[in-house]
Design goal:
This protein is mainly β. It folds into three domains: about 150 residues, Hotdog Thioesterase (Thiol Ester Dehydrase, Chain A); about 45 residues, no CATH class; about 80 residues, OB fold (Dihydrolipoamide Acetyltransferase, E2P) (Beta Barrel), CATH 2.40.50. It is about 10% helix and about 35% strand. The chain has four helices and 14 strands. The strands form three sheets. Strands 1, 2, 3, 4, 5 and 6 form a six-stranded antiparallel β-sheet that branches. The protein has a five-stranded mixed beta barrel with strand order 10-11-12-14-13. The longest helix has 12 residues. The chain is globular.
């Protein structure tokens, strides 16, 4: 257990006790539960929609961003975990910081990982912040730094940060007044061109200028060849219902369940999520032809939707 008194015998302050954990090991000689393997690489790439050929075939490498995946302990926990990290979390629990949220991570890559590589790792408690007040509550940021190796070779580092905090008291929320506007899409530098097109009643699809692959949703680079250069084509508006779900619960402001949310396969070959309108929610079917229309929800918001059984409105 950590020492609770200083050299003079006086009790240490909480900040001193927390800072004493900096530099202590959080995991020693941890071993990955599985070697790097093609099935996990395939699952990762399918989930991310990443078709980079570097991750396929006999000379495949693992996507660099999978670095942490090979060290994860699953339901049974990590191997090599030390008492120091558990002691630190217990000390924060004693201070009422019983909630935790992951805030961010940083990775560096030094060599590619290949199927068959056996992973080992060590982790150190790099820093414990001063007491911070956030919208979630008041607590401490704890940063650990992990070194991932294959044999004696450093493959990468993974810096992971959590906030251990005492949840802030939140006053009871009153139901929002009606009418409630639809939530706004998140617009950033990677997808701003798409939303500019929507405001002009045009559905734009990215096209790689190197390999001509089409992609949706919009991305900063081609997931087929990696080229960062692109232009756009305008969708014809024709499509079919590839899959769908009917949302019954929970209700959200500005939405009136039940309603159908569909994965639409456009005639150009890409797929996008949107609403199906023009038919009752229980009449939506896989393979159903639909056509694009643009719906004006308020003075500012225009969204694409797909109408079944008729021409675009």
């Amino acid at each position: 257990m950590s020492d609770m008194s200083g050299a003079s015998g006086a009790p240490k302050s909480l900040e001193q006790r927390l800072k004493a954990f900096e530099g202590r090991s959080a995991a020693v000689a941890g071993v990955g539960k599985d070697p790097v393997n093609r099935p996990m690489i395939r699952h990762w790439c399918e989930a991310m929609g990443d078709t980079n050929p570097a991750y396929l075939g006999p000379d495949a490498i693992a996507p660099p961003t999978m670095l942490q995946a090979w060290t994860m302990g699953g339901l049974s926990g990590h191997t090599g975990r030390t008492e120091a990290y558990d002691e630190l979390l217990a000390l924060l629990d004693e201070q009422g910081c019983t909630a935790v949220v992951a805030t961010d991570c940083e990775q560096e890559y030094f060599r590619p990982l290949r199927p068959g590589d056996e992973i080992t790792f060590d982790s150190v408690i790099e820093s414990v912040s001063d007491r911070k007040t956030t919208k979630l509550g008041t607590g401490y940021f704890v940063t650990t730094r992990m070194e991932v190796r294959v044999g004696e070779h450093l493959a990468g580092t993974h810096r992971f940060r959590i906030l251990k905090y005492a949840p802030a008291h939140r006053p009871e929320r009153k139901p929002p007044p009606r009418p409630v506007t639809r939530p706004r899409p998140v617009v950033n530098r990677d997808n701003a061109g798409f939303w500019d097109g929507v405001r002009q009643h045009r559905l734009l699809i990215q096209r790689c200028t190197a390999c001509a692959s089409l992609r949706f949703p919009w991305l900063p680079g081609c997931n087929a060849c990696g080229c960062p250069e692109w232009d756009t084509i305008e969708a014809s508006g024709e499509g079919t219902v590839f899959s769908y779900v009917v949302l019954h619960h929970p209700p959200f402001p500005a939405f009136a369940p039940p309603y159908a949310v569909a994965l639409i396969e456009l005639a150009e070959g890409v797929r996008m999520i949107s609403n199906v309108v023009g038919v009752p929610y229980d009449k939506v079917r896989i393979g159903q032809p639909v056509r694009l229309e643009f719906q004006q929800h308020d003075e500012e918001l225009v969204l694409p939707a797909f109408r079944a059984g008729g021409e675009a409105a």
